[in-house]
Amino acid sequence: MFACTNCGYKTLKWLGKCPQCGFWESFIEEDAKPRKAAKTKDVTLVNIKELAQTTEKRLPTGINEFDRVLGGGLVKGEVVLIGGEPGVGKSTLLLETAAKLAQENKVLYVSAEESINQINLRAKRLGICPDNLFIVTEDNIEDILPLFDKDFSVVIIDSIQVVRLNYLSGSAGSLVQVRETTGVLTEKAKKTGVCLIIVGHVTKEGVISGPKVMEHIVDCVVYFEGEKNSNFRILRAMKNRFGSVGEIGVFEMTQKGLEQVENPSSIFISQDNQIMPGRSTACILEGMRPMLVEIQALVTKGNFGMIRRKTSGFDFNRFSLLVAMLEKRLGLHLATQDVFVNITGGIRIDDPTADLALVAAVASSAQDFVVPADSIFIGEVGLSGELRIAYNITQRLMEAKRLGFKQAFIPEINHKKLNPKDFFGLNILGFNNAKEVIEKIKMKT
């Protein structure tokens, strides 16, 4: 039997190209030996009313940003998969987490990639030395499994691509090894009630190395992201059976390790107080967390008849639609202009309510007028220029008010449902389309 290392598709013969995912030369032969049938046993029935009376106990990691992403902390028997590019700081984050947990719990850190001396050097740099944190350097799963029975509350495996089962064919990191080791570790964690955290490497395509079935086995999938030229790291939940999906935690990489950023809006908004065209502020939601980000735009004359369109941190296809709308509905002459857009802080945003802020920034740069620095823009913009409803508008406006903004430009459909008394000090203005917003800004300047 041959299986694709990317998507897990199986076939009886080797194929050059996977018919399911389209990858080339991704098939490897796996051992198809039949397993022995397990003995049957009595199945225990549980009434759902009994389950409703039980309360879910969380194990806080001691790091607030990590707990936010997990939904309040670890759950007994939960399996968490943390993926990220090499060098982004996964091992640093988990060693700090293990040290915090070890203050009140017994923690095992299994390192299959680094030696004891390497871990010791990192621990000294981070300034951690807890009593209940135990380190073992082992890559054989058969030797690791008995350690689950030694009263450990949390076990960390770093990383799943390096550990292996000796009775399976294939080297560590292969399709069979990754799938089976994840399954065996998950089964052991569920039986013993130990919280298990697994590290997984990310491929150049941006997915965790190994088949997608690996993500289906675990309870929570978290990605640790960061730009190469930025000290900021974002922990993002992609799957969570015990919490909401899309929550993020923000960290800053320092000489002493990862520091939590309790107020992410402060790093994504410029503090230079310079008044110039081409700048606006949007309020986006990451999970249930409102964050303010600054959008910068630069519109300049194209050279030699060749125009350029570039974005950093904003979806290029959506940006192209908004530029076309600005030309058609607002009358901006951008056909001969270079248009560049940048989201400050190195963050990438997918919230459509940032459309209005981008429109304001591009129009400001193109027509050389200044957008008031104390203004916030919230609203999705359609191709006809209309402003669509923005969800969770109350949370966004409360965050803008907390950070000292004086006026907010929002869709009229949201404005009708708000009580101005709830946002004392914040002047909320409602509009039906983007053209009205731009005209209002010009009147104020």
Net shape: globular
Count the strands? 23
Task: State Rg.
Answer: 26 Å
What fraction of the residues are assigned to beta strands by DSSP?
25-35%
> Mean of the pLDDT scores?
87
CATH architecture of the largest domain: 3-Layer(aba) Sandwich
Low-pLDDT windows of residues: none
* Secondary structure tally, helices: 13
For CATH, the homologous superfamily of the largest domain is named as P-loop containing nucleotide triphosphate hydrolases
Main sheet characteristics: 9 strands, mixed
CATH overall fold name of the largest domain: Rossmann fold
> Helix coverage percent of residues?
25-40%
Our measurement of the CA-to-CA distance between the termini, rounded to an integer number of angstroms, reads: 70 Å
Q: Record the strand order, biggest sheet.
A: 8-7-9-10-6-11-12-13-14
Question: What structural class do the secondary elements suggest?
Answer: alpha/beta
Total number of domains:
3
- What is the top-level CATH class of the largest domain? Alpha Beta
Structure description:
By secondary structure, the chain is an alpha/beta fold. Strand 20 (380-381) and strand 21 (387-388) form a beta hairpin. It is globular, with a radius of gyration of 26 Å. The chain has helices at 48-52, 64-70, 90-101, 116-126, 141-144, 175-192, 213-217, 265-268, 316-329, 355-367, 393-402, 412-415, 434-444, and strands at residues 2-4, 10-11, 27-29, 58-59, 74-75, 79-84, 107-111, 133-136, 154-158, 195-201, 220-226, 232-240, 248-254, 257-260, 279-286, 289-301, 309-312, 337-343, 375-377, 380-381, 387-388, 407-411, 427-431. The model has no long low-confidence stretch (mean pLDDT 87). It has three domains: 1-34, no CATH class; 57-262, Rossmann fold, CATH 3.40.50.300; 267-444, Ribosomal Protein S5, domain 2. The strands form six sheets. A nine-stranded mixed β-sheet has the order 8-7-9-10-6-11-12-13-14. It has a four-stranded mixed β-sheet with strand order 15-16-18-17. A three-stranded antiparallel β-sheet has the order 2-1-3, with no helix packed on it. The chain has 13 helices and 23 strands. 27% of the residues lie in helices and 26% in strands.
